[in-house]
Amino acid sequence: MPEMMLNKSSNGTTITTIITTTTTCAKSEQSLESLQQLCEQLNEKISAFLRAEPETELVRRVQCQTAISLQTVHDALERYSPDELAISFNGGKDCLVLLIIFLAGLAHPTSRRKRASQPLLNAVYVMSAHPFPEVDAFVDVCVPGYHLDLARYALPMKKAFETYLREKPGVKAIFVGTRRTDPHGEFLTHFDKTDHGWPEFMRVHPVIDWQYQEVWAFLRALKIPYCSLYDKGYTSLGGTTDTHPNPALEKVATAGGSQFRPAYELVEDEQERLGRDR
């Protein structure tokens, strides 16, 4: 039997991962089984959330957005096999919502058959030039917790994707957690090929139309662990040189310095990037 190891996320919630000490073949089989189990568990969790009677208008909107995003994942799985898909994951709130919905979508029977020999999920992390230790620590927890085959690149975005696709030539489409209010997100759809001059792949945007409050309502309703910086007033994560706690969440200053309310207490989409210098 495999040994069970509990990894704690930076906000104290546990993510269970399974560590085996047997042969390479047994490890691969166990990892595949573990990924399937995780997908099924998340699918059941999301299905229960979608069936529940919404207590607020916000929850009703989140249910609608979740159903649309899940359908986008299913559409992607109709076009591509799981090994042709990857997810861009940097530990932020938006790509975390995307990851959970993507994993839930992989529980579909057709996807399970296509994924017969894939024990890990293709993933790429384009790192900031000045990463937060808290972000990297959270990503480190997510790699085994969500069964990610994560490639990390401390490179500009375009160069990072060029390198990734050269190393993973079978990948044809990449899930991206861009939302409509993000820079360059205004005119995107659920499926967009990369622009001229970029490495060629299909960008899939299941959460493109989610609002800021909806992202947090989803994560909190499903009790999904997230990066600890969000509890310190950060609402949009870049690097240490251009990202600060959001001033809209600042409490009354004390002798010990400014304190900030958690990110999920922010209401307005337009205020999300007030803590970013660019």
UniProtKB/TrEMBL annotation:
Catalysed transformations (reactions): FMN + ATP + H(+) = FAD + diphosphate
Phosphoadenosine phosphosulphate reductase domain span: 85-245
Keywords for the protein's UniProt record, in alphabetical order: ATP-binding, Coiled coil, FAD, Flavoprotein, FMN, Nucleotide-binding, Nucleotidyltransferase, Transferase
Entry EC no(s): 2.7.7.2
Keyword Nucleotidyltransferase found: yes
Pathway: Cofactor biosynthesis; FAD biosynthesis; FAD from FMN: step 1/1
GO molecular function per UniProt: FMN adenylyltransferase activity
Main enzyme class: transferase
Residues forming coiled coils: 25-52
InterPro entries named among the record's database cross-references: PAPS_reduct_dom, Rossmann-like_a/b/a_fold
PANTHER family: FAD SYNTHASE (PTHR23293:SF9), FAD SYNTHETASE-RELATED FMN ADENYLYLTRANSFERASE (PTHR23293)
Protein known as: FAD synthase
Species in which this protein is naturally found: Discina gigas
Gene giving rise to this polypeptide: FAD1_1
